[in-house]
Write a structure and sequence with these properties.
Strand content: 25-35%
Radius of gyration: 20 Å
CATH superfamily of the largest domain: Dihydrodipicolinate Reductase, domain 2
Shape: globular
Number of strands: 15
Largest sheet: 7 strands, mixed
CATH topology of the largest domain: Dihydrodipicolinate Reductase, domain 2
CATH architecture of the largest domain: 2-Layer Sandwich
Order of helices and strands: EHEHEHEHEHEHEHHEHEEEEEEHHHE
Distance between the termini: 46 Å
Bound molecules: 1,4-dihydronicotinamide adenine dinucleotide
């Protein structure tokens, strides 16, 4: 069988991770083309990955008849339009989260996705492909925790990434802390509980980085949520974890509790020195979720080969963005918000 020719749009932090995974870990696929608005990234793509077909315009890239599938790793505000264009060109689509930033726009995009049932669509909720999360999900589904009562999630970016985040948020619309960061946790809450979220109340504070005020961005945010069956969820999102990249999830049920990555350790090394007992922390998302990013891309390519749709759907994108936007609204209005 011929390799699946992939065109990637966006060669920034996320795009580079996907590009490398295709080249190094997915023998059934070929990184055939890349699209970016930054010249410097073309040099990188040629040098690192040997990509020959380089484009500054997405529509031009998808005109290339040799491309079978696209990976969308452009800024979040471009996702829906690029998904629609690629679907209408007959291509399989993997899109980074969030699926979009506007509910009506996402719904229109889902109509187009649904009208092409033979093309694969997958959304980048890679945590669902992480081994620990998959193991925990299996235990929860087997009933080890009894009935869930509360889910607590932390998703906090390292402060070392703040400068690059400010650049990202200045040049494009991140969608805000909840759409950008918490969508992963919102998806996990929905995935673990099998429930939709019906009500949210969110708060935020900028303390260490008041410059985020000017961008309309939050450094730390928290949201309390109620699910349809009255299960509760507490989400903390932030951009200022001084020790590294902190993603942690806790599930509490009637028969017990379960924690994933209670301490976001880098590996099994422990250092004993003048600071005491030191466990190094994971420093960024490509490091913590390295295997999950590879596994989600393998799934995308397998789905194309097998002609089946992946478990992470466009509707998961819609529902998580609905909740994230309800959190943003709650921050703005200082009110408890019912999710539509
Ligand atoms: P970035 O700013 O590092 O890179 C953006 C890339 O898009 C750059 O290559 C830029 O040249 C390109 N670009 C910008 N405008 C474009 C246009 N009009 N046409 C074509 N290319 C264009 O951003 P980053 O952090 O890589 O984020 C990209 C997407 O990935 C975002 O939607 C973000 O939410 C998502 N993401 C997902 C993560 C995950 O955990 N799954 C982690 C980080 C980002």
């Amino acid at each position: 069988m011929n390799k699946i020719n992939i065109g990637i749009v966006g060669l920034g932090r996320m795009g580079q991770t996907h590009a490398r995974n295709i080249v190094v870990n997915i023998p059934e696929a070929n990184l055939y083309a890349a699209c970016s608005v930054a010249e410097i990234e073309f040099e990188y793509a040629k040098r690192e990955f040997g990509v020959k077909e380089l484009y500054q315009n997405f529509e031009e890239m998808i005109e290339n008849p040799n491309i079978d599938a696209v990976i969308i790793a452009s800024p979040s505000g471009f996702h829906t339009e690029q998904i629609r264009l690629a679907m209408e060109k007959g291509l399989h689509v993997f899109s980074e989260k969030p699926i979009g930033l506007d509910i009506e726009d996402i719904k229109e995009t889902i109509k187009i996705i649904d009208s092409h049932p033979n093309q694969i669509f997958q959304l980048g909720f890679m945590r669902r492909y992480d081994e620990s999360y998959q193991y925990a999900k299996k235990l929860v589904d087997e009933g080890i925790l009894g009935e869930l009562t509360l889910i607590r999630c932390y998703g906090i970016d390292p402060s070392t990434e703040l400068e690059s985040f400010v650049k990202f948020a200045t040049s494009s619309n991140s969608g805000g802390l909840f759409s950008d960061m918490s969508v992963h946790d919102i998806d996990l809450v929905r995935w673990f509980s099998g429930q939709e979220i019906k009500r949210v109340w969110a708060l935020g504070k900028n303390a260490a980085y008041p410059e985020l005020d000017e961008l309309g961005e939050l450094e730390t945010g928290a949201a309390m949520m109620q699910l349809k069956d009255e299960t509760m969820a507490i989400l903390v999102a932030g951009r200022n974890a001084v020790h590294g990249y902190h993603v942690e999830t806790e599930l509490i049920g009637t028969k017990g509790m379960l924690r994933i990555a209670q301490q976001p350790e880098k590996n099994l090394v422990t250092i004993f020195n003048e600071q005491g007992i030191v466990r190094p922390t994971t420093q960024n998302f490509p490091e913590r979720f390295r295997e999950a990013f590879i596994r989600e891309m393998k799934e995308f390519v397998s789905c194309i080969i097998d002609g089946r749709q992946p478990n992470v759907t466009a509707n998961d994108g819609l529902q998580s963005t609905k909740v994230a936007l309800a959190c943003q609204k709650s921050i703005k209005t200082k009110q408890l918000i019912d999710v539509e």
